[in-house]
Each structure stands twice: as C-alpha cells, then as structure tokens.
Amino acid sequence: MIEFSHIPVMPEECMKGLALKDGGVYFDGTIGGGGHSYEILKRTSPNGRLIATDLDDNAIAAATKRLSEFAGRFQIYKSNYKNYAAVLERAGADKLDGVMLDFGVSSFQLDEESRGFSYMKNAPLDMRMDPEGDLTAEAVVNGYSEDALFRIIRDYGEEPFAKRIAGNIVAERKKGRITESGQLVSIIEKSIPAKFRHGAPFSRKTFQAIRIEVNGELDGLEDAVRGLSRRLKKGGRICVLTFHSLEDRIVKNVFKDLETDCICDKSLPVCVCGKKKELEIITKKPLTASEEELRNNTRSKSAKLRIAERVEEYI
Fold first, then answer.
1. Contact call for residues 229 and 258 (beta carbons, < 8 A)
2. Measured between alpha carbons, how far is residue 231 from residues 67, 84, 226, 235 in Å?
3. pLDDT tens for residues 19-72?
4. Residue 54 annotated in ligand binding
5. Considering only Cβ atoms within 10 Å of each terminal Cβ, which end of the chain, N or C, has fewer?
C-alpha cells in the first residue's frame, strides 16, 4: 500500500475565499488527504469546527491522522457530500460559516494501480472512489450499449472521436471481456488518428468520462451546491474547485441563479415572483492556479475555483 497523498489545489486562494474566522463551522465535502481541512482548522483555532465527508476509506484514515492535532474539533463521515443534510443532522449542525468542495481525484487514487483510475499503468478496470460501490469501469465497458458508451465518452469526456472509440470497444469485447486498463488504452489508441495522439495523453478524456459515470459525479451536483449554499449563514462563503467543464458549468449556473433577484416582467409595478437574491458571486471569472503552482503540481492545470457569499440566511 502506497502512502495516501494529495496536494491541495489553490490552498491560499481557497482559504482567502472562505474568509475564515475563529469559532466558525465549516463543511469540507471531499476531504481527500485533509489538505484544505488542515488549513481550515489551523486558521480557525482555537474554536473553529469542521464537518467533512469522503467515500474513500484510505482518504478518511489519512485525513484523520493528519488532523489529529485538532482532536475534538472535527468529524469525518464516510458519505457522499451530496448527503450533506443527513450528515449535518448527525453532526448536530444546521447553519454553516463556510463550505469547501474539491471535486478533484487524489494523487493516491490515480497512482494506486489496483484502483484502475490511471491510463498510465495497466490495472484492473475499477475506478470506484468508494471501493464498496456496485458499479465498476469493467461493468461499464463490457455492459453498456454502444450508444450509451458513445454518449458518455462524448458528453463526459468531450472526446471528438467518441463514436469510433465506442464502436471499437463493442467490437473488441465480442472477442473477450475487457478487464484491464491497458486493453482499453489500446482500443482508444487505434480509434484516434495518429496525428492526434502526439503531445497529449490521448486516453485521458475517455478514462475521465468512464470515471464520472462509475461514480455518478454529476448526478445531484446541482442540487448539492444549491442546498449547501442555502445552509450558509449570512456572510458565509462557498468555495468550489472543479476540474471538468461540465462541473464548472453547473456550479456557474447555480451561482448565477442564486445571485439573480426578481425575474418578473419589468412592466409589472410590483414583484409577484418572490425570487430574492441569495448569493453574491465573489469570482466573476473563475480563479486558476498560478504559474508557480502549475510548476509544482501539474494536476492543478484544469482547476477552476468559484466563490460566492450568502447575502441573507435561507429560511
């Protein structure tokens, strides 16, 4: 077993964005190795409190160890952040001073061969963030129809050669079950014209698409961001790190909707829709990693950070 490692992306930007304060109650929906959580607890000493979730047992163990110096000030639950309502009820918390959501896959998950996340190493096709989850990458690759595979690879991976890749997966699995990542890489390679395979990892988009499908990463994301935004106290902040354009678009649209005030026809003398502005968007354009961070952590390249502040408590 390799040591769990995950370098937090844009930690200073996230902490500044959260506008941390002593005694605040914060929620970290994807604790990973505890990098962001550590900074939250450190900068809200001595009375700040953290409630966190993750689906990965290794992440939870690593984070618990890393945060041990703050014993009594944090609670970590094995759960999806989308189950925030039940988690907060268990933790005895209602309103929050800040929410941190980091949708990145940890270095540990990418590097541990048995997890099958990486296209760089041959491994069983798994890709489950929760090892106890029912759906695996192997089940997707071997069980989904050609049309379903095409749509997943096109929509989640934004892969221009999705149709060819899906067709070749179906043709190849007729010869025998596809069980390893190396087999999938070979199929993708022959599906993409040679001139498009140079200068970039050509399997990345398809692997990303299958990972998103296996873990249901986009399912319920909009409702969770909206719901967590409404758990904020007045002046509370939500910071969301995304690593995929579809995730970022969802977050952008939720923030924009919650920032919008009355949507009545302007010809009406008074508001009848009842819609009130709930958030103030702090980042009109998403923040990205600095040149220095990109040199030290290449996995921060696709990261986008959006920040918003609650203007009135939701009743």
1. yes
2. 24, 10, 9, 11
3. 999 999 999 999 988 999 999 999 999 999 999 999 888 889 999 999 999 999
4. yes
5. C
Pairwise CA distance, residues 31 & 79, whole Å = 11
| 112 has pLDDT over 70 | no
| ∠ Cα 243 245 251 (to 5°) | 85
Q: Are strands 49-54 and 232-242 parallel, antiparallel or unpaired?
A: unpaired
Does the annotation list 36 as a binding residue? yes
102 assigned binding-site residue: yes
Is 34 marked within a binding site?
yes
**Single pTM value for the model:** 0.88
d(CA 273, CA 63): 45
Q: What is the mean pLDDT of residues 200-216?
A: 90
Residue 199: both structure tokens together: 């200068």
Outline where DSSP puts E strands in 174-315.
232-242, 279-281, 304-310
Average pLDDT over all residues of the chain: 91
Q: Enter the DSSP assignment of 269.
A: S
H-type helices in 216-244, by residue range?
Answer: 221-229
Cβ atoms of 39 and 8 within 8 Å: the answer is yes
What is the rounded CA–CA span in Å between residue 290 and residue 310?
27
Query: Could you report the per-residue pLDDT of 239-286, keeping only the tens digit for each?
Result: 999 999 999 999 999 999 999 988 787 777 778 777 889 999 999 999
How far from 90 is each of 76, 232, 258, CA to CA, in Å? 11, 17, 27
109 has binding-site annotation: yes
Distance CA 182, CA 199 (A): 19
